[in-house]
Amino acid sequence: MFKAEIDGIEMELEEKISILDAAKKAKINIPTLCYEEGLSIYGGCRLCVVEIEGEELLKPACATEIEDGMKIKTHSKKVRELRKNLFELIIATHNIDCQLNCLTCSRASNCELKEIAEDIGVSKMRLDPIKRGESIDNSSYAIIREPEKCISCNRCIRKCEEVQGIGIFTTANRGPETVVTTFKNRGMGNVECTNCGQCILSCPTGALHELYQKDIVLDLLNDESKHVVVQTAPAVRVAISEPFSNQAGDISTGQLVTALKRLDFDAVFDTNFAADLTIMEEGTELIE
Ligand code: SF4
Ligand code: SF4
Ligand code: FES
Questions:
Q1: Is residue 251 within 8 Å of residue 237, measured between CB atoms?
Q2: Which of 36, 123, 191, 229 is in Cβ range 3.0-4.6 Å of 267 for a Cys bridge?
Q3: Of 202, 85, 96, whose CA–CA distance to 149 is shortest?
Q4: Ligand 2: residues within 6 Å at CB?
Q5: Ligand 3 centre and the CA of 175: distance in Å?
Q6: 62 in contact with ligand 3, CB cutoff 6 A
Q7: Under a CB-based contact definition with an 8 Å cutoff, are residues 55 and 67 in contact?
Q8: What is the rounded CA–CA span in Å between residue 193 and residue 142?
Q9: Weakest-pLDDT range from 96-105, 140-149, 272-281
Q10: Which domains does the chain have, with CATH numbers?
């Protein structure tokens, strides 16, 4: 057991955890960008910097262990100023068309950059944005990559490698020229991507997003000469529960099927049985 203090709150801790995790325990919010729970620590964005009494340099809270007797300030003037400067540098590498006031971006309604900008008080872009002239990658049938919107947080690299075990993303170049790209800079449609979408969930900007397919589906549904069927994966009935105003984790098969029928699908198929067979097969392989 040891003691530390964060923003004047005395804490008794039993194990060495990061300053970020200790702050969470004390219900203190420290902004983060490259950090994501469940992924390894990268420590690249430095947005989570904090001031430790007696130390001249500010330290990243996600990558620094809290120690006995530490006195930490998470929102001192020095911290807030550096955080703003760092954030302005980060958004200068983000596509100017966005201007933190996006209309057409896929992340317009849930952009982490906008949330952080509001939290730390950045309301305009003071630095000239760096345009790299990279084109949009449309090569995949499911995932679009817009490299100009990438802020090199590295989360997609770690998610694809550590969670999915695939590892199609990597970094290229050095220093300020460093960019996140795909294996050999190939298009998303030309790498071993399984289209699981996990990297999209991790991406804090609109640099990775799904291909918009609503118009294609609606055109087919409007075409009376077509018999249009839909087949849902088992997970969808749970994932859709919250948009249906049910509790997270609820099973909403009935509402899902009704909604699809109302959309005018001619038939609704369920992958449940085939998924059960797959699990039985995988389970048997594991036991053997
Ligand atoms: S969608 Fe592709 S690139 Fe993204 S995490 Fe899954 S396998 Fe990796
Ligand atoms: S594509 Fe998204 S998740 Fe990957 S490094 Fe760029 S901003 Fe981060
Ligand atoms: S969130 Fe800690 S360094 Fe990026």
A1: yes
A2: 229
A3: 96
A4: 150-156, 180, 202-205, 207-208
A5: 18
A6: yes
A7: no
A8: 10
A9: 96-105
A10: 2-75 (3.10.20.740), 143-210 (3.30.70.20), 214-287 (3.40.50.1780)
| Pairwise CA distance, residues 33 & 93, whole Å | 14
Tens digit of pLDDT for each residue in 179-236?
Answer: 999 988 999 999 999 999 999 999 998 899 999 899 999 999 999 999 999 999 988 9
Total count of residues recorded for the chain = 288
35 lines ligand 3 (CB under 6 A): yes
Contact assessment for residue 58 and residue 91, using Cβ atoms and an 8 Å cutoff: no
Give Cα separations from 37 to 45, 54, 63, 159, 270 (angstroms): 15, 29, 13, 11, 33
168 close to ligand 1 (CB < 6 Angstrom): yes
| Whether 143 contacts 211, CB under 8 Å | yes
CA–CA distance, 155 with 205 (Å, rounded to integer): 11
Q: Is the pLDDT of residue 101 over 70?
A: no
Of 79-93, 114-128, 143-157, 231-245, the poorest mean pLDDT is in 114-128
Measure 273 CA to ligand 1 centroid, in angstroms.
26
- pLDDT tens across 232-263, in order? 998 899 999 999 999 999 999 999 999 999 99
